[in-house]
Amino acid sequence: MVLQEQKTSGRSRTKRWLLRYPRGLPIGIFILIAAITVLSIFAIENGEAERDRAQLNARATAIASALERRANASSAYLRAGAALLSTMDDIPPDDFRRFVSELRLDADYRGAEGIGWAQVVVPSEIAAFDARAGDPGTRNELYPPLSAEQPFAIPVTYLQPDTERNRRALGFDMYSEPVRRAAMEEAERTARPTATDKIVLQQEGDGQSPGFVVFMPVFEASEGGRSLKGFIYSPFNARDFLQSALELEDAGAYGVRLYDGDRETENLLASNFEDEAEQPDDTREAAMTVTIANNPWQLVVFERGQGGLSGLSMATLIFGLLVGALLMLLVRMLTQQAQEDEASLAWFEEQASIRNSLTRELNHRVKNTLANVLSIIALTRRRADDLQEFADGLDGRIRALSATHDLLTQSDWGSTPVRSVIDAELLPYAQGEDRQVHMKGPDVELAPNDALSLGLAVHELATNAAKYGALSKSGGVVDVEWRLVAEDLVRVEWRESGGPPVKQERSRGFGMDLIERIVAHELRHPVELDFDPEGVRCALLVPVRRAKEFMIRANRPGGAPLENEKA
Question: Does CATH number 3.30.565.10 belong to domain 384-553?
Fold first, then answer.
């Protein structure tokens, strides 16, 4: 009886509320659901905005890395050129043209107008410089005339490739122009590649397309220590330089601007959209400083905003206003959305970290390669009796490094098979029917630096065999065999037979020095080199390293590669 009375009393109170507030109670419930819905929409929009900002920052970092990689590639070529030109007393046009053609400029050098040489010309040498005028229509006399307060001129002497466009710059005194002069003086002071501020390239003629120049000083020995000989340089069209980097990073929906200094219209170097003067108001942007050849610039990446609510917010609004029972589902959706946002942020941060690590690794490997090149140049110079012998020796060894570099590039600087390295070096000698080259061994993968050292050693052995050994005579045979002597060590044996008898009394050559010093040092194992009368024999021990010791991506947790990257 009591329970029945309580139930009747409860229903009566509910009825009284409905009767007393026929509109207020539904409106109150609606307002409560609407408030929860509004808060939910705010959280969703804020999360998507954070994700978009993180994605924009990651894209800006990727574009900045691409620009710096291209600048580093240019600087590496200029450093190599400076090292070579500093050893030459005179720089004939044919030698400079050959040097540029041998660089084999690849896709990383796109956006550049070429490579040029500008020598220092003092007033007493101007007449001699002008006397070397080229073909009719090619302007290479020094201009503008040297002013009284200018101690010397630095005119464009050569600029390769030799095109009609590049010929416009020949003879132009770059030291007479303040912006170029400032960059030259900074490059001379620091002995590093240095980029100019915003300029218009001389080869643009009457055009106004902005550009810049990267200078690398070339010094020569003098009584006082060293003196400036000139500059090897690369001119860049700023828009082409930016576009070449954006092609790798798929800038698509993003607007990109590159400024020389503050974000002022007059400082704009390049942009990837036509309306460079104005930027829409409803945009998100990310700005950062990029260093291009010792010159800090400002990169701005922006994305046009989308008006109105996102699709997820609209769905939340509709379901929240119509059905209060979906609140639990809404919470679940918000939790899932937050997890997705967190995962996206972590992925973008990991991408940025890996790109920075790859950039540092690239710089390290470029420095190692240049160190090898400088060592080869030094040893070749000491062994050469004349310039032609020096050039021929250097040509072959640089080609050997280039061939192995091609293999490493094809494998994304991962592991490289022993057979591929040997094939690349012996291919020119394995075509004739009167000579035989036999190769035998298991599948063994080498680390990049070890593959370079092995390729250099095989090149020297093959060159010696082609000149004096088994490959110089019909019927000669070269056997190359390799085998694993330990889990982390492979033995590569070179044997010649059927060639001329090997002289037992001979002078010590560069090849022996290179193999026993540079190669042995790089491989960290001694080299066995035997000049048997029946044919040269050589044995090398090459380390076999695990991938995680030299591949950055192998160090990731679980060893899983990144999306859209090769493992």
Answer: yes
